[in-house]
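Hey, can you fold this one?
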Amino acid sequence: MTIWPDLFSVEGAHVLAVPLSMEHRDDLAEAAADGELHRLWYTMVPRPENVGSEIERRLGLRKAGSMLPFAVIDKASGRAVGMTSYMNIDAPNRRVEIGSTWYRQSVQKTPLNTECKLLLLQHAFETLGCICVEFRTHFMNMQSRRAIERLGAKLDGILRSNMIMANGSIRDTAVYSVIASEWPAVKANLTWQLEKPRG
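Sure. Predicted structure:
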C-alpha cells in the first residue's frame, strides 16, 4: 500500500517541521510539562509521562495511512517544542486536516505557529495539490478558534456531540477550512503577519 503523502520536512526562519519519531520524546515530554497543558480539559495534550505512547499512537496512524505526524522544532533552540499533523487524510479527494497541534507554553504567541501553519498549508496546496485543508477544534477552545480564524480559515459549521472527551464530557467540534481558491489570499495574509513590524 502506498501511503500519501510521502514523508517530508519544511523549514522557515523560525521553525522546522520534521517527521515525528521517538528521538523527539525527551524534548516533547519537557515541552508538555511547560504550562501543564494536559490540564486544559478541552484539549488532548499528553501528560509528560505519556508522550512516548502518544508518539507511538501517531506513528501507528501513519502506518494506517490516516496521519502524517510532525515534531515542531524551534530553530533558535534546536529542540522539539510541540507536535502537529496532517490527519484525516483523504488521498482520493486530496484533502487533509492540519490538527492534533500543541506547543509548549513558552513558544505560544510567537511567530512559530503562524510560520508552521504557513509552511504546511503551502506544501498541501502547492506540492500536494490539495483542494481543501481543514482545521478542527473544541467549540469551547476560544484560543484555538481565534488562532484558526487569524490564519484566514472560514467556519464550515459545528459538529454537535461529535466526540467523547477523556473526562467524559461531549465535544462539539468547530470545523474550519481553507479551499484552494482562497490559498493565495491566505498565503499573503500569513506572510504579512510574519513580516510586519512588531510594536
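The CA atoms of residues 22 and 55 lie 7 Å apart. Let me know if you want another pass with a different chain boundary.
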